[in-house]
Amino acid sequence: MNRVTVSVDTCKGCGLCTTACPQKILVLAHNKLNAKGYHPVEVTDMTKCKGCALCALMCPDVALKVEKEV
Predict the structure, then answer these.
(1) Following CA atoms 44, 23, 68, 47 in sequence, which dihedral angle do they give, to the nearest 10 degrees?
(2) CATH of the domain at 54
(3) Is this model's pTM higher than 0.85 or not?
(4) Minimal CA–CA distance to 56: which of 45, 64, 67, 44?
(5) What domain range includes position 56?
C-alpha cells in the first residue's frame, strides 16, 4: 500500500496539497491544531492513495512524504 506521512508540526495548513491530490484524500483537520497554531492536513483514506506524490511536490514546507508500494 502507498503511504503519505504528514509532518504535522511542519504543516502550515496552506491547503495546496489538498487541491493537488487527484484522489481528493487530503483535507485540513479543522478540529486539530499543530504546535504553530495551524490546522494541519490529514489523510482521509490511505487505501485510495496512488503514490503520485503531487501533494509532496506542491508542499512549500516539505511537510509530506510519499512512499510508493513496489
Answers:
(1) 50
(2) 3.30.70.20
(3) yes
(4) 64
(5) 3-67
